[in-house]
Write a structure and sequence with these properties.
Two copies of one chain form a homodimer.
Chain A (H helix, E strand, L loop, with lengths): L10 H8 L3 H8 L7 H14 L5 H8 L4 E6 L5 H16 L3 E6 L4 H13 L4 E4 L9 H8 L4 E4 L10 E4 L1 H14 L5 E5 L5 H16 L9 E3 L5 H12 L7 E4 L2 H13 L9 E3 L6 H4 L6 E3 L2 H17 L10 E4 L2 E3 L9
Parallel strand pairs in A: 1-2, 1-3, 3-4, 4-5, 5-11, 6-7, 6-8, 8-9
Antiparallel strand pairs in A: 10-12
Helix pairs in contact in A: 1-2, 5-13, 8-9, 10-11
Chain A binds a DNA duplex (30 and 30 nucleotides) through helix 2 and helix 4.
Chain lengths: 346, 346
DNA sequence: TTTTGTTAGGCAAATGTTTGCATTAATTAA
DNA sequence: TTAATTAATGCAAACATTTGCCTAACAAAA
C-alpha cells in the first residue's frame, strides 16, 4: 500500500543530465549574466520538462535569504487587521516575498513567544501591531538591536523611536468632532477605546481639543471609556447616554462597532439620527454603509497602511541606502466620509 | 556607521564551550532520551545565557521538516475567510506549526503560481479554498499525486475525491427556506451566488427542494443569480424584487451582505420586515446582529472550519495511521440563528 | 575473570544550493 | 605569432543541523 517516496530532482541531477556543473545550473536558473543564453535555455527547458523544482530551503540555508516576512497582529478576524494584512500580502507577493502570520491575541506572553519563533525562522523582516497587554518593550528593543528590519503599524511603541506607519489619530478625531460641531452640535459625547493604548488616547485628545478650540465645555460625564470598543460595550454606553440630561446632540465613537450600536439603540428609542443626535464613527467598516442611517466615519486606510508597511519594510531589507536611516515614521492621511448619520436637513 | 553583523551563535560554538560534541548539543536541545538530565540542563542553561537560537532553516534543511503549512484563500479581508484562517492559525500554532498565507484573488493563474511557490518552500501540507475562476483541476490533482497532505475547505473540487471540510450547503439552505415556509411565507425569493461554484449551486438546490417538499410553486423569476454576492448586487436585486407582482413575502439570500442590502432597501420603502417580507441570510457576519431588524441567518462555522481543516491536515502530516486513508470528508453542522428579520408577531 | 548489557555520548556523513576563485577556450590587440 | 582580454564554465568549500552507527565506560551476570 505504501508508495515509494519519489526523491525530488536536484540541481545535481540536472547537471549530470546536461553535462554541466551544478554551479552552472544554479547560475543559469537565477539568470546570472556570465551564463550564455544558449545554456540558460537548455537548462530551463530541461528543468521544465523534468519537473525540477528548486529546493527553497536549501537555497535559503546557503544564501541566508528566506524571502519571508513575519507578521504579528492581535487577531486576524477583525476587519481592520484583515485589511491591513491583505495589503501587506499583496505588496509582499509582488516583491517576491511571502508572509508568515501569527496572532498574539493581545497577549504579552504570546507576543514574546512569537517573536522568538520568528527570529529562529530567519524571517528577513517583521511587521508588528502591538498586543494590548504589552507595556514592557524590552523584547522589542532587543529585537531592533539585532538590526533586523521591523515596522510597526497602528499600535506602535511610544517609549522609543522606530519605524512606524500610523494615521494621525489626534487630527482625525479632531476633524470628526469638528464636523459634528459644524453641523450644529453643542453637546457632544465620546465613546473612547482602551486608554492604555496610544491611538485611543490620541482620539480622546483630538475630541477634547476640538471642543476646546470651539469654546465648548468639556464634561467628564460625556466621555465613556470602553475596554475593547466591542459591539456589546457600545450598547451599554448607548443606554447610559440616554440617561444624560440634557440628551447630547452628537456622538463621536472611536470605532464603527460602537457607533453602530448607538445608532441601533437610538433607532429603537425613536430618537432621530441625525436630527436629534448626529453620530460619527471611526474606521469605515463594511457595516458603516449598510446600517440605516448610513454612518459618517473616518476612512482609516487599512489596506494602504498594509501596503505602506510592506513597502517600507522591503526597502529596509533590500536597499543599501536605507542603512543610514535610523528610523522612519509615515503618517497616512485619513478622510472623513460624510454619510446620513450626520447629514441634517438644511 | 556600519555596524559589524554579529554572527549568530551556533551549535558548534556551544559544543566547543561545553566540551561536548555538536550531536550531543543537538540531542540535548531536542530532549533526546539518550542524553542525561545533567547534560541537558547544562546545555539549555548555556544556550539561554549565551542567547543561542537554533537556526530553523538549517534544521529544516537537514531534517526535511519545515513545520509550516501553506494556505491559499481567495482573499483574507472577507469575514468568512479571515475567520477560517484565524481558526487554522490557532490550531496550527498550538501544534507547533506556522502558516504561510497567500491570496489567489480568485484568479486561476495566481492559484497555480502560488501552488508552485508553496511546493518549492517545502511546506508540510496545504489548506486551500479554490479560486472562483478555477475550472481546470489538473494542477491540484498533480499536487495530490505528490502525496503532500492537502485539505480543501468551503469551495472544494468536485471532479475528484480529496480531503475536504465543508458545511452541508444544501441542507442549510433547505432549513433556511423551510423556516420561512413555516412562519407562513408562500412566495419566497432566492438571491443566489455564482453558479459556477458548487456551494452556491447547492444552496439554490436546497431552496428549490424545500419549496418542492412543501408543494410550493417554483418560479424562475424568483431566483436572482449574482456574480459575487456583493452588497451592491444585493441592492440591485432588492430593487428588482420590489417590481415583482405580487410582492414576495420571504427572501432567502445566499449570504449576509445581500441580505443586509435587501433589509435596507425594504426599510427605505417602508415595507415592514418581517411582517410583510421575512428575510434570511447566510454566514452570520457581524452585521447580522447590528442591522435593524437583526438578521436571521445560518451560522456557517467559519472558525471551526479552520480548526477542523488544520486538525485534519496535521493528522495526515504526523500520524502514520493516516497513510491508509485515501481521502476524508468532514461536513460540519450548521445552525439556523433566528433573529428579528423572520420573527413575526403571533 | 569473562561475558553481556546498558548508558551516555562522539564521529562523520549527508542534506542541496550558492559563490569566490580558478580555469579553459575563444577572441582581439600588438 | 604571441600576449592580453573576454566570455563561459568548473571546482570545491561552506552553510548549521541531524542522524545512523560506533565506542567507551561501567555495572551486572555468569
Amino acid at each position: 500500500m505504501k508508495e515509494k517516496k519519489t526523491t525530488p530532482i536536484t540541481i545535481k541531477d540536472l547537471a549530470k543530465e546536461l553535462n554541466l556543473s551544478p554551479s552552472t545550473i544554479s547560475r543559469a536558473l537565477s539568470d546570472h549574466p556570465k551564463i550564455s543564453q544558449a545554456t540558460k535555455k537548455l537548462v530551463s527547458d530541461k528543468a521544465e520538462q523534468s519537473g525540477f523544482r528548486l529546493n527553497a530551503i536549501a537555497s535559503s540555508f546557503r544564501s541566508k535569504k528566506t524571502k519571508s516576512i513575519g507578521i504579528i497582529a492581535p487577531r486576524i478576524d477583525i476587519d481592520f487587521h484583515s485589511r491591513v494584512i491583505s495589503g501587506i500580502e499583496d505588496y509582499a507577493y509582488k516583491s517576491g516575498y511571502h508572509v508568515i502570520i501569527f496572532q498574539s491575541k493581545d497577549s504579552y506572553k504570546m507576543e514574546k513567544e512569537i517573536l522568538q519563533n520568528l527570529q529562529n525562522m530567519m524571517v528577513e523582516g517583521m511587521i508588528i501591531c502591538l498586543a494590548m497587554e504589552t507595556k514592557n518593550f524590552d523584547h522589542l528593543k532587543k529585537l531592533i538591536k539585532t538590526k533586523l528590519p521591523v515596522v510597526f503599524y497602528d499600535r506602535t511603541p511610544e517609549t522609543f523611536d522606530t519605524n512606524k506607519i500610523t494615521i494621525n489619530d489626534f487630527e482625525s478625531a479632531f476633524n470628526a468632532t469638528e464636523h459634528l460641531i459644524k453641523i450644529g452640535c453643542k453637546n457632544i459625547v465620546h465613546i473612547a477605546g482602551n486608554q492604555s493604548t496610544g491611538i485611543f488616547r490620541a482620539r480622546l485628545e483630538g475630541y477634547k481639543a476640538a471642543l476646546k478650540s470651539y469654546h465648548l465645555p468639556l464634561r467628564d460625564d460625556h466621555i465613556f471609556v470602553t475596554h475593547s470598543l466591542s459591539y456589546q460595550e457600545g450598547l451599554t454606553c448607548a443606554e447610559k447616554i440616554l440617561e444624560l440630561n440634557p440628551l447630547p446632540d452628537g456622538v463621536f465613537c472611536a470605532n464603527d462597532y460602537t457607533a453602530a450600536s448607538v445608532v441601533k439603540v437610538l433607532n429603537k428609542r425613536k430618537i432621530n439620527v441625525p436630527e436629534q443626535v448626529a453620530i460619527v464613527g471611526f474606521s469605515d467598516y463594511p457595516i458603516a454603509q449598510i446600517i440605516e442611517p448610513s454612518l459618517t466615519t473616518i476612512n482609516d486606510r487599512a489596506v494602504q497602511m498594509g501596503e505602506a508597511a510592506a513597502k517600507m519594510l522591503i526597502q529596509h531589507i533590500q536597499d543599501q541606502d536605507f542603512d543610514i536611516i535610523d528610523h522612519q515614521v509615515i503618517t497616512l492621511k485619513t478622510e472623513l466620509i460624510v454619510r446620513e448619520s450626520s447629514t441634517r436637513k438644511a
